[in-house]
Amino acid sequence: MGRVLVVVPTYNEADNVGRIVARVRAAAPAVDVLVADDNSPDGTGAIADSLAGNDPRVHVLHRAGKEGLGAAYLAGFAWARARGYDAVVEMDADGSHAPEDLPALLDAARDADVVIGSRWTRGARVLNWPWRRLLLSRVGNLYARLALGMPVSDATGGYRVYRRSALDAIDLDSVRSQGYAFQVELSRLAHRAGVRIVEVPITFAEREHGDSKMSPLIVVEALWRVTRWGLRDRLATVQARPDALARWP
Ligand SMILES: Nc1nc2c(ncn2[C@@H]2O[C@H](COP(=O)(O)OP(=O)(O)OP(=O)(O)O)[C@@H](O)[C@H]2O)c(=O)[nH]1
Ligand SMILES: [Mg+2]
Fold it and tell me: Which of 15, 40, 166, 199 makes an SS bond possible with 113, Cβ 3.0 to 4.6 Å?
């Protein structure tokens, strides 16, 4: 597999950043960690700096201000590529993505370009999520799958491995999404690029410390972008095959 970098985006995760980094280092001692912090007012960046000072495998990317999860990941991907990493992992800081699942994800990446840690494949578990969040995730994923025609059961999931082959195949400069839409957009671009995507069941747990950054705006962004991509894909199909319209019922 080569060199692996786990990118952990943080915004006000002072209670979580130390725990998650320690768990990653214990679960997968050979991987490096990059905390991508958006100048968190609660001092997460300074805590990350002290972690990095004590462990050469831990790094920190300080960003000027809160620009969203998508922008933090793109910066982390660029950081990894500039340093020749062979794979990057996306992982939330709040403990929802268990570092203990990482070896299974990395194992699956031996035969895949993208590995999605999935909440909605057989064998996965979702712990302590209120029914509203479960419903949102199920319905959102169903909509994304139907609108975009992707054989992916957890397109909004944010626990993933991208091998360099996948990052090279995707035009990352074109990505504009911020929240959950970012994960869907990368799934879509990977699918369209024809790279091999596999899903691995994970145990997903509700965050225990700190506050969620989930907002209605993030949901609306995802809904709006997925709808636009879906319509655009259909229009492109019709333009390429006008006879398909004539055969429409
Ligand atoms: N750098 C950076 N990280 C962010 C930003 N927004 C969210 N994050 C991080 O992205 C990860 C996921 O955010 P969460 O707030 O857990 O979002 P969520 O998982 O949908 O919401 P919950 O399930 O309620 O926790 C966490 O590690 C956050 O700290 C941001 O604007 N910048
Ligand atoms: Mg979370």
Answer: 166
